[in-house]
């Protein structure tokens, strides 16, 4: 009788655990995944190339000797991040913080939905307001306010925010709105604008490399996670500070704000702000996919120096510029990029400052303005001897103690030497400039795509 029960138990075990696999190892199935090219990006097929100076080192910098390196496939923005794209980030931060302040004010005054006032913006409580783990993560870490005591309570994002002072519903809303603006004594021409210093994004970093190399068993994962509030608004004063005895007030006043410049590259953004944008873009994209039960995407990030140079060359081996070279003009005498030609004739290339992010012809990877327009931050520290010791496979040198970060490609205010794809330059990570922007990349997921496979 006991043997009979044992046989039944074994049979039930096999039937319940097999689930139709007939006892075979068939692999655990995850969420459906279909490789999707992110909007505005192009796929750069991985491959090997000769990184470094193609011509003589006329500047005698000795910081870019020729070296063969290999990079995996990745997506890259076809253009530099534009003012309009960056405004989507700053508007999201602005709205999130403002909604949180409204909800706190409603909670403190006992206001609830249905009062046609600030109660309409109250936290969503009860079953309707229960946060998913993802929403909890997003709310607690990325609003930018730091600890408020209201973590874990869901914001009501279904109600439109009111920015027109003529439509403010009650005094509580007016108080929150007033605290969000610059003081009266700082207003210019009677116009009080949003206090941009209040717009901060809580940037979180997990140092995977430090974890992998850690041998101290007393440390846990939390010891390698850091959080830092990062002001997100571009520094528009760069248009004044970068130039002495020069009238650039119109650019200071309008370049980031005015719709006329929406398709121009964002500037006045330092290295940390560029990285914060990348993290927000990842969270924003994955938040959408999470709602639809789709597999997450890899993070958006700044390119390494190797990725940037590989993409800038557009598959041309030994080229001086993204279009080949060795000249910055085509056969009709037209300049091929936005830079400082002819010893300071800025307008000779049909632009005085920056141009639209998709101006001029793209390279063979369909990337615009890899040379000129604005220099671009990369996710690498500037170390003059880096090429001598960095890996030949997906190389990157990023020392946290080194505050000098790489910028590549040259800009509208640079001479043609800095437009060369092999030229290296740097700026300090906390510095914002009127001639430095950025573009993002995303590691390609799925089947390997290489340049060799693409050409066979």
From TrEMBL:
Molecular functions per Gene Ontology: formylglycine-generating oxidase activity
Xref: Gene3D superfamilies: paralog of FGE (formylglycine-generating enzyme)
All residue ranges annotated as the Sulfatase-modifying factor enzyme-like domain in the record: 40-441
Pfam families in the cross-refs: FGE-sulfatase (PF03781)
NCBIfam families, alphabetized: GldK
PANTHER family: FORMYLGLYCINE-GENERATING ENZYME, SULFATASE MODIFYING FACTOR 1, 2
Protein name as annotated: Gliding motility protein GldJ
Organism in which the protein naturally occurs: Nonlabens tegetincola
């Amino acid at each position: 009788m006991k043997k009979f029960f044992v046989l039944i138990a074994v049979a039930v075990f096999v039937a319940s655990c097999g689930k139709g696999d007939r006892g075979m190892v068939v692999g655990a199935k995850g969420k459906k995944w279909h490789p999707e090219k992110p909007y505005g990006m192009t796929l750069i097929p991985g491959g090997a190339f000769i990184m470094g100076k193609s011509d003589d080192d006329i500047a005698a910098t000795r910081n870019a000797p020729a070296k063969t390196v290999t990079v995996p496939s990745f997506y890259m923005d076809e253009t530099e991040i534009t003012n309009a794209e960056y405004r989507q980030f700053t508007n999201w931060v602005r709205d999130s913080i403002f909604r949180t302040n409204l909800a706190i004010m409603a909670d403190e005054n006992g206001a609830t939905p249905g009062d046609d006032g600030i109660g309409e913006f109250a936290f969503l409580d009860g079953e309707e307001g229960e946060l998913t783990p993802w929403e909890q993560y997003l709310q607690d870490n990325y609003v930018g306010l730091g600890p408020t005591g209201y973590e874990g309570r869901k914001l009501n994002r279904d109600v439109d925010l009111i920015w027109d002072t003529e439509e403010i519903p009650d005094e509580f809303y007016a108080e929150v709105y007033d605290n969000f603006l610059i003081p009266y004594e700082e207003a210019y021409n009677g116009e009080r604008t949003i206090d941009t210093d209040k717009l901060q994004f809580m940037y979180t970093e997990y140092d995977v490399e430090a974890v992998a190399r850690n041998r101290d068993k007393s440390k846990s994962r939390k010891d390698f996670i850091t959080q830092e509030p990062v002001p997100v608004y571009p520094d528009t004063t760069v248009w004044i500070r970068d130039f002495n005895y020069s009238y650039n007030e119109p650019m200071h006043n309008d370049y980031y704000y005015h719709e006329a410049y929406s398709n121009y590259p964002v500037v006045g953004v330092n290295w940390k702000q560029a990285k914060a944008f990348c993290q927000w873009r990842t969270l924003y994209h994955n938040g959408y996919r999470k709602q639809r039960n789709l597999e997450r995407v890899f993070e958006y990030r700044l390119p390494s120096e190797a990725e940037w140079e590989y993409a800038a060359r557009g598959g041309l081996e030994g080229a001086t510029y993204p279009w080949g070279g060795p000249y910055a003009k085509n056969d009709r005498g037209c300049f091929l990029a936005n830079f400082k030609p002819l010893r300071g004739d800025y307008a000779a290339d049909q632009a005085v400052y920056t141009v639209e992010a998709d101006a001029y012809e793209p390279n063979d990877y369909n990337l615009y303005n890899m040379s000129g327009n604005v220099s671009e931050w990369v996710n690498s520290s500037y170390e003059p001897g880096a090429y001598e010791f960095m890996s030949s496979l997906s190389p990157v040198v990023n020392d946290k103690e080194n505050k000098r970060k790489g910028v590549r490609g040259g800009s509208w205010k640079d001479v043609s030497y800095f437009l060369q794809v092999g030229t290296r330059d740097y700026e300090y990570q906390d510095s914002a400039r009127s001639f430095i922007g950025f573009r993002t990349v995303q590691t390609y997921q799925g089947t390997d795509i290489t340049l060799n496979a693409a050409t066979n």
